[in-house]
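Re-run with default settings, no changes from the original entry. Doing this only to confirm the output is reproducible before filing.
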Amino acid sequence: MIGTILDRFCNVLRVLLAALIAALAVPVGMQVIARYVGILPDWLWTEELATFIFVWVVMIGSMVAVWDGTHFDVQVIPTAERPLLKLLQKAFVLVMVVIFALLFAYYGIEYAEFGGRQNSVMMRANLMITHISVPVAGFVWAIFGLYRLYETFAEYFSARRATR
């Protein structure tokens, strides 16, 4: 049940990611038109908006990647064939992901507070808009990583039961 809820949450993140990528085309397109056509003035606020959107695209994309198991994992040694070694390989990576995620979540709170005390130059938007993405991403990475760790142990124990 928890896996289904997390999978649906990840699907919402995918939809949000697609919407943000589509939204990113607007300020970037305005900048291209302003620079190369010369009809429109150079709008500096579009660069800030594109940066804000891009930061969230990266962070949400990394959340989806943790859920899919396509991020934070570099294959250095061959995949183990024995169930216990396979468990150790997967668990090590997932534990590192969770530790990294918890560090992001914990220290990201102070970073977000720092951003909350500043405003952007052109749009005068509070910078917490982007800074809050760090602890949010860390929290989501931790949840996704812990669930994947649980799945890894469940897979190991079911394989072990099947061989008996």
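The chain has a mean pLDDT of 90. The helical segments are 2-36, 44-68, 83-116, 128-131, 133-163.
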